[in-house]
Design brief:
Elements: H1 7-19, H2 24-31, H3 35-47, H4 53-88
Length: 96
């Protein structure tokens, strides 16, 4: 017989499974539960009519941070290309 997990433990496992981008099999292994157990917890969470506002605030923040991260990576890539462009043409930055 398996050990009982606290509601907080289950909620954290579900949160990680839904927001981390990791494969659910990996999340289940990381939390020491079976894949089917984690899947049941996720289904139960989705059926639950009451969602914590803190949970939805965190989910919204994660989406915003991922968008910002993507934008910053794109900007970094543009700057890298500009550096290569100017370096190939012999432009040297004068500092000071």
């Amino acid at each position: 017989m398996g050990s009982r997990r606290t509601e907080e433990y289950r909620a954290e496992a579900v949160r990680v499974a839904l927001t981390s981008g990791l494969p659910r099999k990996q999340v289940a292994a990381d939390f020491g539960v079976g894949f089917s157990t984690l899947s049941r917890w996720i289904q139960k969470d989705r059926r639950s009519p009451v969602k914590s506002t803190t949970q939805s605030d965190l989910e919204r923040e994660i989406v915003e941070l991922r968008k910002e991260n993507r934008q910053l990576r794109e900007e970094r890539d543009v700057l890298k290309k500009a550096t290569v462009f100017f370096a190939e043409r012999g432009f040297v930055a004068q500092i000071g």
